[in-house]
Every structure is written in structure tokens, then in C-alpha cells.
Write a structure and sequence with these properties.
Strand content: over 45%
Distance between the termini: 44 Å
Number of domains: 1
Helix content: 10-25%
Radius of gyration: 20 Å
Shape: globular
Order of helices and strands: HEEEEEEHEEE
Number of strands: 9
Length: about 160
């Protein structure tokens, strides 16, 4: 191996080590990260639904001024179905009530499903002081069932980022 090849190899290895050791700040420094997933069916009706996604909250420990959520959801039933993705751009959040309460805007994909998609959550394309339902304390939450007459599961993971 030539001297030039050795230097290139060492340089590439150093670059790889730096990129692996450096944290990713794609959305800035977040203080909280959450993931969530749930599925359910209404037995005997031919109806089912599911959702999965994540949120990152930044700008403080008890409240902040930035955040992002990305989630996918589906609802299928005998009269039709909706499958979509939602992006939440969070401009303010707080954990004062025991859950993350958020303010911001929502964008649905595909755009043609916006009304049906945001009707499920967050309710509209702009929202203020909306209770996300995500617990505001670190931990794993197995919330079990999803309501009367439904069979399914609902899990949330909340992590405080040091």
C-alpha cells in the first residue's frame, strides 16, 4: 500500500469515528424524545386502526419553544379507509399538566386526506394548548386497551435527553 493510500485510509477512518461519535442535531438540541404505537380492532365490525410515530421537544426541560412530531396512522372499515402521515411543527410546549401540552401546526400527507387525517389527531391544522396525551415523565407506558369494545394495545416511551 502506498503512503498516499495509507493517509487516505487513516483520514477516512478518522472522519468515520468523528461522525459516529457526534450526536445528530437534525432538529436542534431536544430535551425530550418520545415514541408511541398503538393498534386496535372492533371485533365483528371489520374495522381497525393503528398509529406509530415519535416526537422531540426542545428549548427547555419543563417547557420549550420548539418541537417536531412525525406519525403515521390508518383507519380501515367497511365504508372506507384513511392512511396518512402527519407532521407537527411545534412552536411551544409545556409539561405542567403531567402530559405534553403543545401549540403549533399540522401538515398531512397525502394532502387530499388532510381533513380526515387531522380529525383523528390533532383535530385541525393549527392547534393551541392541545393535550398530546403523552406522559411528561420519563418511562415506558403500557396503556393496554384502547377503549370499550376494542381489542388492541397502546405503548409510549418517554426519554429525557441529558
Amino acid at each position: 500500500m502506498s503512503f498516499r493510500g495509507s493517509v487516505l485510509g487513516i483520514g477516512f477512518a478518522a472522519l468515520l469515528a468523528i461522525s459516529v461519535a457526534s450526536p445528530a442535531f437534525a432538529y436542534g438540541k431536544e430535551n425530550w424524545q418520545t415514541t408511541f404505537a398503538g393498534t386496535g380492532v372492533a371485533p365483528g365490525t371489520g374495522s381497525g386502526f393503528g398509529f406509530w410515530g415519535w416526537c422531540a421537544f426542545g428549548g427547555g426541560v419543563t417547557s420549550g419553544n420548539n418541537g417536531d412530531c412525525e406519525f403515521s396512522q390508518y383507519v380501515h372499515g367497511p365504508s372506507g379507509s384513511v392512511t396518512c402521515e402527519v407532521s407537527l411543527n411545534i412552536s411551544a410546549w409545556t409539561r405542567a399538566s403531567g402530559t405534553f401540552v403543545i401549540t403549533g401546526t399540522a401538515t398531512a400527507h397525502p394532502a387530499s386526506s388532510t381533513a380526515a387525517c387531522v380529525a383523528i389527531f390533532p383535530g385541525s391544522t393549527t392547534f393551541t394548548g392541545l393535550d398530546s396525551g403523552i406522559p411528561a415523565a420519563a418511562g415506558h407506558y403500557n396503556l393496554g386497551g384502547l377503549g370499550p369494545g376494542l381489542v388492541g394495545e397502546f405503548q409510549i416511551q418517554v426519554t429525557q435527553v441529558p
